Amino acid sequence: MNQFSRTQLMLGAASMERLSHSKVAVFGIGGVGGYAVEALVRSGVGAVDLYDDDKICLTNLNRQIIATRKTVGQYKVEVMKERALDINPDCRVGTFRTFYGPDTAPDIDLEQYDYVIDAVDTMTAKLELACRAYAGGVPIISSMGAANKLDPTAFRVADLYKTSFDPLARIMRRELRKRGVKALKVVYSEEPALTPAEEDPAASCKANCVCPPGTARTCTQRRQIPASNAFVPSVAGLIIAGEVVKDLARA
Fold first, then answer.
1. pLDDT attached to residue 195
2. 14 lies in which domain range?
3. Closest CA to 54 of 233, 225, 211
């Protein structure tokens, strides 16, 4: 009997052995990525590398699994590592306070991973990850838009070129087609994006930033601060982790 015995009943001993020897990279440890990491570790994935340069902010408390009053101001990758090791002390967790993009991508060898999860929220990073993973033949799954959504049942798993309704996916299709990327597994929502309610200036992050001191990229740098909740990004993250676990288990 071990902590993964219930999972082994479903997947079998051989699949659990494969998972224990698998190494996954997760880029973006936020509302989507945090739940993805949680599920990977609880499923017996043996090694996880975490990439994010951000600190936990007060506004993360409404949706991010690692965000509590005690962790506000701490680096997300470090808090996620501590949580992961509390779940499975044998998991090999690497932490990298890195903002992934064209400048930092050459320093990261994606081919060392059995799978890559893209849970970042910038277009340049998503395109860079997709292109490099495709060129290296590394399995990757990418999260499309999870902000400004209310329906967690509207998520679908598909190839990027077969998606519909998702504005981010539409831009990704156009840009990746130009770059010769012919396939990308994604999780996307068919729910039309909602328009965020008009912000109260007194409560707006733009007027009263609550990001921890030393935060490299604050909400105030965004053109529009997206609306979110506890039940949509989390579902996207769990779906992503489920796809990764299933793919690795039967590899």
1. 86
2. 5-249
3. 211
pTM of the complete model: 0.93
Distance CA 246, CA 234 (A): 18
Contact in structure between 100 and 125 (CB atoms under 8 Å): yes
Other CB atoms within a 10 A radius of the CB of residue 238 amount to 18
Report the CATH number that the domain containing residue 181 is assigned in CATH.
3.40.50.720
What pLDDT does 203 receive?
Answer: 59
**Amino acid code (one letter) for 5:** S
Residues linked to residue 23 through DSSP beta bridges, in sequence order: 47
* Dihedral of alpha carbons 50, 55, 56, 57, sign: negative
Q: Measuring CA to CA, which residue among 88, 89, 108, 86 is closest to residue 97?
A: 108
Q: To which residue do tokens 């077969």 refer?
A: 162
* Helix axes of 167-178 and 123-136: crossing angle, nearest 10 degrees: 50
């993964």: which residue's tokens? 4
Residues of the chain under the 70 pLDDT cut? 198-209, 217-223
Q: Could you tell me if 117 and 244 are in contact, meaning their C-beta atoms sit under 8 angstroms apart?
A: yes
Domains in the chain, number: 1
d(CA 52, CA 107): 14
